[in-house]
Amino acid sequence: MADVFTPEKRSELMSRIRGRDTKPELALRSMLHRLGYRFTVNGPKNKSLPGKPDIVLPKYRTVIFVHGCFWHGHQNCPAFRLPKSRRAFWKTKIEGNQARDLRNESALTSAGWHVVTIWECALKTPAARSWLTENLPQLLD
Questions:
Q1: Residue 6 covered by a domain
Q2: In a domain, 11, yes or no
Q3: What are the φ/ψ torsions at residue 53 (nearest 5 degrees)?
Q4: Is 113 inside a domain boundary?
Q5: How does DSSP classify residue 3?
Q6: Domains in the chain: how many in total?
Q7: Cβ atoms of residues 40 and 58 within 8 Å
Q8: How far apart are CA 30 and CA 22, in angstroms?
Q9: Rounded average pLDDT over 2-22
Q10: Cα separation of 62 and 11, whole Å?
Q11: Structural domain range at position 37
Q12: Is 12 contained in some domain?
C-alpha cells in the first residue's frame, strides 16, 4: 500500500516526533519525584553514558530508559505493530534500534550501572501507572 501523504508532508509529520521530554518521560519523572527520588535529566553523566539514558539516578547508580513501544519493537504489546507499507525498511530500522539498546545496556552493566527500561505502555493508563508506582522501588534496586 502506498503512503497516503506526499514525501514532503510525511517528512513534516516525522520531524514532529520528539526524542526527549515526551509524555511518557514527563509522567515517569513526575512519578519519581513524587516518590522522593532525585535524578538528573540533562546532567553531564547523562550525555557521557552509553545510549544517553533518559534519567540517571546517581545515588542508586541506576539509569532509566523510557522506550516507545513502536520505535523499540515492544513484543506482545498492542501499541506495536509493523506498518503495512515499507515493511522491510521498518523491520530493519526497529531491529537496529533493538540491537543498539542491547549494546548500550551491556556497556552500562559492564560499567557497574543498573539499567531499567520502562515501556511507554506502562505509563499510558491509570492502572498501569498505579502498578508502576507500587513496583518502582523494586525495579530500581
A1: no
A2: no
A3: -55, 150
A4: yes
A5: -
A6: 1
A7: yes
A8: 12
A9: 78
A10: 36
A11: 17-140
A12: no
- Does the CA dihedral 75-78-79-84 come out positive or negative? positive
pLDDT digit string, tens, across residues 29-60: 999 999 999 999 988 777 889 999 999 999 99
**Per-residue DSSP letter, 60:** G
CATH of the domain at 95: 3.40.960.10
Percent of residues, the chain, with pLDDT higher than 90:
59
Strand arrangement, sheet containing 62-67: 55-57, 62-67, 114-119
Q: What grid cell was written down for 103? A: 549494546
Cα→Cα distances 89→64, 75, 84, 86, Å: 28, 18, 11, 5
Q: Which helix (H) or strand (E) holds 93?
A: helix 87-110
Residues 52, 100: Cα–Cα separation, whole Å: 12
> How is residue 138 written as a grid cell?
523494586
Distance of CA 27 to the CA centre of its chain: 12
Indicate the pTM of the whole model.
Answer: 0.85
Q: Show the cell assigned to 10.
A: 510525511
